[in-house]
Here is the input.
Amino acid sequence: MLYKNPARSMIALFAILFFMTQAAQAEGPAPKLANVTILATGGTIAGTGASSTTTVGYTAATVGVQRLIQAVPELAKVANVSGEQVFQIASENMSNEHWLILAKRVNVLLAQANVDGIVITHGTDTLEETAYFLNLVVKSRKPVVLVGAMRPSTAISADGPINLYNAVLLAASQEAIGKGVLVAMNDQIQAAREVTKVNTSTLDAFRTPELGMLGYIQGSKAFFYRQVVRKHTFETEFDISKVAVLPQVDIVYGYANMGPVAVDAFMAAGAKGIVHAGVGDGSLAAKVVPALKAARAKGAVVVRASRVGQGILARNGEANDDELDFVVADTLNAQKARILLMLALTKTSDTKEIQRMFYTY
Ligand code: DAS
Here is the structure.
């Protein structure tokens, strides 16, 4: 037996250590983890409820970014994580000013060699809008991933921690590079351009109807099955680095019996663009057309969108866009058409150029 012969014991011990070292060297050094910065803006993911069963009627935007990170120690296994509290708001209060601050911070960070990806924690109410805005103004191929939660951090089976873990590993992944701004919710990877919130409260509220999500996050790995074909991020022509105020663009919602009041009110308030979220294929009620024509005559750009949510908004379909000199939203929903029109107006008021942009992004 080894213990009866100390010399042989030492030789055996050294042999074991030698082979363990060889094995470790054969595997090579542990892979370097990506550096991911988490920019926190508030929302339910940072929310707290009165009890563990409170899943509605809670307070959003109460938990700070460091506590969000501390609540998920597994983050350290997938990335080197740092955090910044950019805002602490419920996202129904997100504004153009917030977007400019956030986008400028994202571009400064992504220009740094020591930042490999960014995760933005955000309220779910306007998450799709912030995602699309960033999709049009981020000047980098590095991953930018937005994430929220449908249940507050204090709830039984809160979805925030796993959503945050998935978002960080996605932002740290090679697979996410060059894919545009992404949304990671409910184990799914969605594209900023098409994702939309379709349910007021369920965990699967974020969907990409008809065109479909990009992939899944499963077992701490990102799986992509398709990618977007429209331009985004590193291919964008929009530059907000010197933009202090975005042009005012408002949305008029279409419905039976609507009249011109909303259009007139927005124009009186100084709108530079009107998105008309019409019924069906963007149909214009006869009572509204004069107001839209007057808006155009005053220099406002009018975009025909639809309240429907899916499908192509056909140019010269339900209205003579050539004659009216209107733009059509293609497949963008009204809230995203507003964002693209705002950015388009920072570059031009030429409707042919703007229509090109709606067929490009
Ligand atoms: N009010 C919602 C928001 O901040 C809460 C949430 O769902 O995140 O968007």
Remarks:
- The first strand starts at residue 35 and ends at 42.
- The two ends are 75 Å apart (CA to CA).
- DSSP finds eleven helices and 14 strands in the chain.
- The pocket of D-aspartic acid is lined by residues 43-44, 60, 90-92, 123-125, 148 (CB under 6 Å).
